[in-house]
Design goal:
The protein has 504 residues and is α/β, with parallel strands linked by helices. It has 20 helices and 15 strands. A hairpin with a 2-residue loop joins strand 9 and strand 10. The chain is elongated and about 85 Å long.
């Protein structure tokens, strides 16, 4: 186990790493080229620990002992006796390579050199080192003490003993170590690509507004923040750079295609909270919440007809229509006056009504993936009558649950985004980047998803996810939505998505 740890870089990540390991009992030396940055970081950490003390989370003796374990390093050579050095400096390959070359001339041959890089190849960072076998990735998330996960990245030449030592260190500090090979985006940034990129694509197609997409994804799958709220929090410049980096490193795989919308907004300086305006406006760091539009009240004069094999959904629709004073027809075909509701998986409303031979002027689509108790989604299509849309919206919200009306789109919002998240997760485990269990736990810890990608697939039904993807691929005619073999095989064999390739 490491006893004396050097941390290089006294920014948010470096000071967080220093606090984490000082709190778990290691001696930590903090170095930065700017002495004042070290002083600021140590003062910041003391202040955080004092807050913890005030809340009764630690004793005064524990506070002072932790502070005493964090010491400044005036020069790089002060790290000579460390058995682990973690760099958290600027994300430039040549700068990190030079730093490691300088360190190799200072530290012992037994000292492990770790990089906190989030986007650069650990193998490339190590490629100029005399001892690349002792170089590994140790990627934390901000704020380090609170985000209980670290990616332990194995470079092509990293010795396995060093990986296991870093895993043990992380566990001692109370963090979950997600071991991953040196692939683009590692694990978390890789798996997280589907959330933002698919939302941006829906926005670019005019499927729904920023606010609608965020509301639907908060109230449906249960994300704490919608994708555009998250862009504003992290900074669109940071998020877009990661999207471009992963896209380039995977040689323009369509799954990772960034959006021109993000590029334009970055160029305009609309970066989010830190600039006062992003996809939302901010005042004193607080989002100015746009009011949710309220539809006009209309007279409900038509009965409804629902196409679905889901008895639970049929009962839910019938109940809310009863509250609205409307009726749900039970015949195999709709009457000549009925508003027709279809429930496609991965198809748009136009395709669904054409396949079923329904009248376009009075047919709408209802998302079966929605959380019926929180928010419902209706999809209109270009031939739908405005009066039909208004009546359906009012009738389906008669119990007070809001109804979003979006434009015609394969896969609505929830189906499309969740299917993309699940599919990418399946592809990650298919490639052997991680195990199913590590994937789901890492994504929940690092990204705050209410479920991991594979758990989302089980929740909505793996067969349903596969149907959504197949229909998305047919509608768009592009490989962006090609189903992962991992997903397809487990649906074919009726196995859970967490089933490994070989049963021991």
């Amino acid at each position: 186990m490491f006893k004396r740890i050097g941390v290089i870089g006294a920014g948010a990540m470096g000071r967080g790493i220093a606090q984490l390991f000082a709190s778990s009992g290691q001696q930590v030396l903090l170095f930065d080229t700017r002495a004042e940055a070290i002083d600021d970081a140590l003062a910041f950490n003391r202040n955080l620990l004092q807050r913890a003390r005030a809340k009764g989370k630690m004793t005064e003796a524990e506070l002072e002992a932790t502070v005493a374990r964090m010491q400044p390093a005036a020069k790089l050579t002060d790290l000579a006796d460390c058995d682990l050095v973690i760099e958290a400096i600027v994300e430039l390959l040549e700068v990190k390579q030079k730093l490691f070359a300088d360190l190799e001339a200072i530290v012992s041959t037994d000292c492990v050199l770790a990089t906190n890089t989030s986007s650069l190849s650990v193998t490339r960072i190590a490629s100029t080192a005399k001892h690349p076998e002792r170089v590994a990735g140790f990627h934390f998330f901000n704020p380090v003490p609170l985000m209980k996960i670290v990616e332990v990245v194995r470079g092509e030449r990293t010795d396995e003993c060093h990986i296991q030592s870093l895993v043990a260190l992380a566990e001692q500090a109370g963090h979950f170590p997600a071991i991953t090979p040196d692939t683009p985006g590692f694990l978390v940034n890789h798996a997280g690509r589907a959330f933002g990129t698919e939302a941006l694509r829906m926005l670019s197609e005019g499927v729904a507004s920023v606010q609608q997409i965020d509301r639907i994804l908060r109230d449906g799958p249960g994300f704490r923040m919608g994708p555009f709220e998250l862009f504003d929090l992290t900074g669109l410049d940071v998020s877009h750079a990661v999207m471009e980096s992963v896209y380039e490193q995977f040689y323009h795989d369509p799954r990772y295609t960034p959006s021109f919308i993000a590029a334009q907004r970055v160029a305009a300086g609309l970066l989010g909270r830190k600039t006062g305006q992003g996809f939302y406006r901010y005042q004193d760091g607080q989002k100015i919440e746009p009011s949710e539009p309220q539809p006009e009240t209309v007279l409900i004069t038509r009965p409804f007809w629902l196409e679905t094999d889901d008895d639970a959904l049929r009962n839910q629709v019938a109940d809310v229509l009863t509250k609205a004073g409307a009726t749900l027809e039970t015949g195999s075909k709709p009457s000549d006056d009925a508003i027709c509701l279809v429930t496609p998986l991965g198809d748009d409303c136009s395709t669904a009504l054409t396949q079923l031979g329904l009248p376009a002027e009075r047919t709408l689509a209802l998302d079966s993936f929605a959380n019926w108790e929180k928010r419902r989604t209706l999809m209109r299509q270009p031939a739908a009558s405005a009066d039909v849309v208004a009546q359906a919206r009012q009738a389906l919200s008669a119990d007070g649950v809001p109804v979003e009306v979006i434009n015609d789109s394969p896969g609505f919002v929830i189906q499309r985004l969740i299917a993309s998240v699940v599919n990418l997760g399946c592809e990650i485990v298919q490639k052997g980047i991680t195990t199913p269990q590590t994937l789901d736990r890492a994504i929940q810890l690092a990204l705050g998803y209410p479920k991991g990608p594979l758990a989302f697939g089980e929740h909505y039904g793996a067969a349903n996810i596969l149907a959504v993807l197949n229909n998305l691929q047919t509608n768009y005619g592009e490989p962006r939505y090609r189903p992962s073999p991992w997903l397809r095989r487990r649906v074919q064999l009726e196995l859970p998505l967490t089933t490994p390739d070989f049963q021991e």
